[in-house]
Design brief:
The complex is a heterodimer of chains A (359) and B (424). In chain A, strand 14 and strand 15 (184-189) form a beta hairpin. Chain A has strands at residues 11-18, 22-28, 34-40, 46-54, 57-66, 70-74, 85-89, 93-97, 107-110, 116-122, 133-138, 143-146, 156-160, 169-175, 184-189, 193-198, 203-209, 214-219, 228-233, 237-247, 251-258, 264-270, 273-281, 285-292, 298-300, 306-308, 312-320, 326-331, 338-343, 347-353. By secondary structure, chain A is mainly β. Chain A has a domain at 10-21 and 117-295 and 306-354: YVTN repeat-like/Quinoprotein amine dehydrogenase (Methylamine Dehydrogenase, Chain H, 7 Propeller), CATH 2.130.10. The N and C termini of chain B lie far apart (114 Å). In chain B, helix 8 runs antiparallel to helix 9. Chain B is flat and about 130 Å long. In chain B, a hairpin with a 3-residue loop joins strand 4 and strand 5 (39-44). Classes of the chains: A mainly beta (359), B alpha+beta (424). Chain B: It is found in: Cell projection, Neuron projection; Dynein axonemal particle; Nucleus.
Amino acid sequence: SSSGGLERPQLVAHVQRALNYTLFDCKWVPRSARLLCLGSAARGTGVLQLYELRGGRLALLREIEKAKPIKCGTFGATSLQQRYLATGDFGGNLNIWNLEAPEIPVYSVKGHKEIINSIDGVGGLGIGEGAPEIVTGSRDGTVKVWDPRQKDTPVANMEPVQGESKRDCWTVAFGNAYNQEERVVCAGYDNGDIKLFDLKTMSLRWETNIKNGVCSVEFDRKDVNMNKLVATSLEGKFHVFDMRTQHPTKGFASLSEKVQKSTIWQVRHLPQNRDIFMTSGGAGSLHLWKYEYPAQRSKKDSEGAEMGVAGSVSLLQNVTLSTQPISSLDWSPDKKGLCVCGAFDQTVRVLIVTKLNKV
Amino acid sequence: MPVWLREYSWRQSGSAVYLSLPVRGVRVTPANIFCTDQYLKVSIPPFLFEAILYAPIDDTNSTAKIGNGIIFFTLYKKEVAMWDSLTLANANKEKLQYLRENAILKAHEKAKEETEAKKVTKQEHKKYALEATMKLEEAERKRIEDLKEKERQKVTKELELWKKQQKDAEKQKRVQKEGELHQEVEKLKEKKKEKMNKTRIANEGTSKTSLKPTKGCHGSYSMFSENLKEEQLPAPRSTATIKINFTSRVFPTALRESRVAEEEEWLRKQAEARRTVSADLSELEDLKEEEKNPDWLKDKGNKMFATGNYLAAVNAYNLAVRLNNKLPLLYLNRAACHLKLRNLHKAIEDSSKALELLTPPVPDNENARVKAYVRRGTAFCQLELYTEGLQDYEAALKIDPKNKTIERDAEKIRHLIQGTTQDS
């Protein structure tokens, strides 16, 4: 980070801890200073560790071992009181755990034939409206939506047509959940496909292809009328789509930015400001971005149809923390600027991003 | 022969000598004046003035003022004394010579010393400047580090404070909830008592419903909010499936497996090959314009091949190759001609050359490569080199697995090989 702009947000490394297993995902436990690390131990079993931030260090509160390595987790579909964790593992199983009593899962289903690469939850934590739902995306090419009140079968299933060769689904995200009926799921695949599924009409609402495999997609807010979507990919590119205006043929307006040569593994929007987001890279770096809206968000094309106008994105700050990819990233929903990231060097790091109020 | 200047006038005080030397008609510069502690010379060709001084002087502080047609010297004596004369009286030639040389040597040494001293001071100045800059930078760095550290500490404090607040808030909430719970329980108990007091039988049903909340109130206050929320939640969605297609490959493979680089190399090579024009144009001067165009010649060759005039076709291709030896198709087609003419070795040569030029292997040049392998394979077989022939046929089959003709021919060759090995 450059010294000449101390007015800009600084990414300050606060605490880090070396782990003895491969870390795949890290998440803050809502309404607490606790965080969860999920991964795979050397002997091929799954690991869940619960840490608490105490003074200048991370104190291990709990360690739980499971049969299969765990790839991803979310608190998105649970209530604030229960704070159950939903996880996807290497065997394609979706489980929901009560961390106070983690021996038996509260919900369990073998949802996919292959590893669940990505998971998201909506309708919980007092955010938004509608039923709590979990979506999983897997290497078997399907995207499935689950309701924890319905056992064994998903409430929605997005799968390839008969005879179509499958592509790995690498990332999923919920969006547009601004009332009880509306909801969309966005999925990114390894061949660069991005598909937007409308769960109210149970149809494919939009699709596009960004040429490089899509590593991460996220809406800036799940629980509002869909506003912006960021998709990151291999070869250091990310795209920001303006989701307010859908053109009948051209789809959504977008801008793209190239960061470095390496893969951009994750994008996460700041919960307290939806125009600020952080991307994490294959070279162990973190970049903090701010989106600026254009003067007019939509305009008419030559035939009078409405089309969106993409804005611009500016780099606020960046820092290199590791030589290995930073594969997971999560902002604390309770403390603005506090975030945790996990890298393939088996280290979990807690960062503080300062001066976000001045941006 | 220099012209000696002998006209001069001088006077002295105890500590200094004042000498005026008229120099008319020439321009004087400091370079013309040479002075050491006991020797003074003014040389402005053709004029020359020199003096062996009576006593040593301090030549560093002495001055010479160049005026209009006159030089005025102020020489400070080393020893305060009155001189009998300006110059040494009994100065013989040898002494003069010695003094002259000495003087010059001394001057040289002085000059050297001066430059040395200058160098040393320069070095010291540089070093000082460097150290000063380093100190400044260090100070700046430290300042920034301190600022960062302050921020960190501030944020850590804020974090701890916030954590504490959370804990307190949670405690408070718990106490509050428990208080509310008790109140609820009390109220319900009251209600129950009231209802029971009214009528006993009619209230069986209602008392059951009022019992429910009390069951779950042992510590888990979450039940309340859970029930409330469930009432507002919609039922699980009715199951449905959405069928999807994936984007078909624009490039032969998805970008992360793409071979764009090789395809671009192939295109570049083709473009370069087009531009190549071999030398030897002197021999080709008597050719017509169109006959100098390799593409035109290739077409001519193709036409002649089609009519069965293989020799003429070969000639056309030969000429084309002389003009541009980087076009793989020329060799490929010439190979076909040689096959027909049963020039089998030449056919093999040309097919090999064509394959050489058809790198890197990309879908664009697939057809050409298949043909090259087949032609070479045929030539090998006709030379009864069946193993080599089969190798080429199999290479062709690898590129184009769906080609039945090649498959059949490959089978035939295999049988032949097996047949010959059985015989021998």
